[in-house]
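Q: What residues go here?
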């Protein structure tokens, strides 16, 4: 029941499937694995499939007509490429058909408290993505940041008008935490959406993230999570 006494609407399949970005960015993956990842995205009707930059051309072709965007990354996984290199890479990927760009804020500059550098870079990347019809997601890599730096990163994300602030990457020192998500939600004030990644493995994780206000979750565990969700929904229908 909500605060007004009305029953909460039941979750639908698409409520959880629509959170998932299926990740296919590990360095050892073959092109066949990328093709299978695209098939998973099509079959399960998820939010996006995220591939390595050199796989974008293939993924865009394989996802054609699906309505599911291809995502890729620049300055990954540590955010330490130069700003012009990141801008070129983002524009190149958008030209090739990527509609979502993930990047990482420059961790070394953030820790060095070079906040103007970080903000200017993200502002330029945000503008480049939006001009090209793409969205920008920025990983904070919270495992490297102190509490005050996480707070400043949220303020920078809002001013730079990025679309999603991401807790972490799978390559960082720590997975997402619910404490960090609560902090980000409070500070981002709904002006920047939240993406969780690193450790999203089960249906319960996905439900917990949704309840906390997370709108996207990066994972390689798409199939078992959504098969479990289908089974649960089937059981609910039979019981009703």
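A:
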């Amino acid at each position: 029941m909500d605060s007004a006494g009305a029953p909460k609407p039941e979750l639908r399949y698409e409520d959880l499937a629509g959170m998932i970005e299926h990740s296919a960015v590990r360095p050892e993956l073959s092109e066949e694995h990328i093709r299978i990842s695209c098939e998973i995205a099509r079959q399960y009707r998820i939010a996006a499939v995220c591939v390595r930059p050199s796989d974008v051309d293939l993924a865009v072709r394989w996802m054609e007509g699906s309505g599911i965007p291809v995502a890729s990354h620049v300055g990954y996984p540590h955010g330490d490429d130069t700003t012009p290199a990141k801008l070129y890479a983002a524009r190149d990927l958008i030209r090739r058909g990527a509609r979502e760009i993930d990047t990482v804020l420059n961790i070394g500059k953030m820790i060095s408290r070079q906040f103007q550098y970080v903000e200017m870079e993200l502002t330029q990347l945000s503008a480049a993505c939006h001009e090209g019809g793409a969205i920008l997601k920025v990983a904070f890599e919270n495992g490297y940041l102190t509490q005050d730096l996480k707070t400043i990163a949220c303020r920078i994300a809002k001013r730079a008008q990025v679309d999603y602030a991401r807790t972490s990457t799978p390559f960082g020192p720590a997975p997402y935490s619910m404490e960090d998500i609560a902090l980000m939600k409070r500070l981002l004030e709904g002006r920047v959406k939240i993406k969780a990644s690193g450790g999203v493995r089960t249906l319960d994780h996905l439900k917990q993230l949704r309840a906390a206000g997370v709108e996207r979750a990066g994972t390689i565990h798409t199939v078992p999570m959504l098969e479990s969700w289908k089974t649960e929904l089937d059981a609910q229908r039979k019981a009703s």
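A: Context that may help when evaluating the design: The mean pLDDT is 95. The chain is about 50% helix and 15% strand.
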